[in-house]
Amino acid sequence: MPGGGQGGLRQFPLRPQQPNQPQFPQYSFAGGSGVIVSRDGWILTNDHVVNGADRVTVTLDDGREFVGQVRPDYRSDLALVKIDAHDLTAAQFADSDRARVGQWAIAFGSPFGLRDTMTVGIISSLNRSESITEDGQGRYYPTLLQTDAAINPGNSGGPLVDIYGRVIGIDVAIESPSGGNAGVGFAIPANTARYIMEQLMTRGTVTRGFLGLAPQTLSYTDQQRYGVKEGALVASLQDGTPAAKAGIQAGDVILRFNGQPVKDEVDLRDKVARTAPGTTVPVVIRRNGSDHTVQVTLGSAPDLQAAQNTPPADQGPSNTPNSPSVRADKLGVTAGNANDANLRQQFSLKSNVRQGALVTDVVLGSPAAEAGISPGDVITQLNGRTVADANQLSEIARGLSSGATVPVVVRHSDQTLLLQLNLD
């Protein structure tokens, strides 16, 4: 490979014994690819190639084998393997932000254990996002390069390069109904890989900033509604997080972060992740047609592998004696007041929720049900208007046009969510 090098990686994790198996060691074999990134033996690969391995063996192009030490980063699905080697030929990195659809893309690796395999294609698309779950664990890839260069099992961790041999991505996954190449492969962009690689080399781990919100890219409808062309819409946020403490709300559009314009969801995620925890930065948001600046002190991103979903509280029956309820037929909900003591006790409402319409029943197949609203949720905004109680919810709902799509802000457990209602 011009200007770079690659290595084949093998891992030998111990497979747990089953009760009826013979009582002697049983081993499984797995393989993948990697790319040499320094003269003194650092090799970049995927975390899922080496994760959980008892031993990792690296085979170089000249046939030499080394046992490597692993520095993984689960969140990015990248890892470094260090071998005791010197004067290696290191790969050069391209600026993946300058990658364009239609440019040549060449994949190197060891598909199906066939070492030194090269396949050729193009960059098919940019900024793909994918969620992949395997063995009960999930990873979210906010931005990926898509290519039709043949990528198969064993290519993971190998380089995707341009016609000059410069790394533009690290092969990571395929979309396939059969498990083999179907012309849709994905690679982690080189700029992301290089940032993770440098932190793993110098620190041994990756530290990321944390806001505690879920952003999404503005749709055309969002752009018209909020009067902006670029930005990241706050789709949800968690109580007690840096974003919530700074006063950011679901439905806000983040326009600037630390003095820099925010293009979209991926841009915001990248800017936040690359800001050191504990740093206080100005964030410009668009709310109700006006721009506001808030100061946010970033936290540290939690460990994805340790994160667990909180089970929903027992919400009990959908009706409560002596609690007045109001129907909002256009939405398909029945609601009471969020400050009603009986309802608060029944639905275990959080103490900081004192205003809004508490949903007590949802009609199956209704706009509310399709949007994901459930009994126990509190509607605090509808179509940009504040909802103080159930009567106000009903009043606002009556004024909505059939066939419209309107935003609704909902409190669900300890989260605030921005949802979209498609009215019948």
Outline the secondary-structure elements:
Elements: E1 5-11, E2 30-36, E3 42-45, H1 47-50, E4 56-60, E5 65-73, E6 78-82, E7 104-109, E8 117-134, E9 137-147, E10 159-161, E11 167-174, E12 185-189, H2 190-202, E13 209-210, E14 213-217, H3 220-226, E15 232-238, H4 242-245, E16 253-257, E17 260-261, H5 265-273, E18 280-287, E19 290-297, E20 299-300, E21 326-328, E22 333-337, H6 341-346, E23 357-362, H7 367-371, E24 378-382, E25 385-386, H8 390-398, E26 405-412, E27 415-422
Antiparallel strand pairs: 1-2, 1-4, 2-3, 3-6, 4-5, 5-6, 7-8, 7-10, 8-9, 9-12, 10-11, 11-12, 13-20, 14-15, 15-16, 15-27, 16-17, 16-18, 18-19, 21-22, 22-23, 23-24, 24-25, 24-26, 26-27
Written account of the structure:
This protein has 424 residues and is mostly beta strands. Helix content is 13%, strand content 39%. The protein contains 8 helices and 27 strands. The chain is elongated and about 80 Å long.
